[in-house]
Amino acid sequence: MKKLFTLLFSVVAFATIGSAQQADIPAAQPGVQYGQKVDAQGAISVKALETALTKSNDFTGKVQGEVVQVCKKKGCFITLKREGNAEPIMVRFTDYGYFMPQDIVGKTVVLEGKGKVKETTVAKLQHDAKDLGKSEKEIAAIKKPKRDITFIADGVVVVK
Predict the structure, then answer these.
(1) What is the dihedral of CA 32, 58, 80, 133, to 10 degrees?
(2) Distance of alpha carbon 45 from alpha carbon 80, whole angstroms
């Protein structure tokens, strides 16, 4: 009985902590900042970032784009929309120091940080797909590494 009570208490405690972490993240409204403070002035478009990364493998600065996905587990990454059928840009946060709310999808944000072209392993791609809530079939279909743009953001501000 004592073990059952301890187990039940532990489950409730972890569930409460997990939901509290997401509840502590402010809703995505214009002007809300995540991470370091970011001024939206001088941000380039996602298209301009793509162009800059064809000339150099690294970019440091601000980028403005529309959020199309957010990690379903705790908001530990977002993706930004690209033109056409191109895969969205993966955006992670410096030292996982902050997280995004689930309602940020569809919002326009400005990120400040570093972008680069990088190869992502199959294991990492599958892990990210799982965090996005993809089906087991979709995850199993990932069989090749992907070379694409990634961005590490020091800060994010919602602009609209």
Answers:
(1) -100
(2) 11
pTM (2 d.p.): 0.72
DSSP string computed for 53-95: HHH-SEEEEEEEEEEEEE-TTT--EEEE--STTPPPEEEEEGG
Structural domain span for residue 54:
2-158
Token couple for 19: 């939901």
Positive or negative CA dihedral for 35, 42, 79, 92?
Answer: negative
Tokens of 69: 């996905």
Separation of alpha carbons 94 and 115, rounded Å: 12
Tens-place pLDDT, residues 67-98? 999 988 888 889 999 988 788 998 999 988 88
CATH number for position 69:
2.40.50
Q: What are phi and psi of 51, to 5 degrees?
A: -65, -45
What single DSSP character describes residue 160?
-
Nearest one of 33, 41, 35 to 154, comparing CA atoms: 35
Question: Distance between CA 72 and CA 102 in Å, rounded?
Answer: 7
CA 84/CA 24 separation, integer angstroms: 35
Q: Are 63 and 45 in contact (CB under 8 A)?
A: yes
Question: Number of folded domains in the chain?
Answer: 1
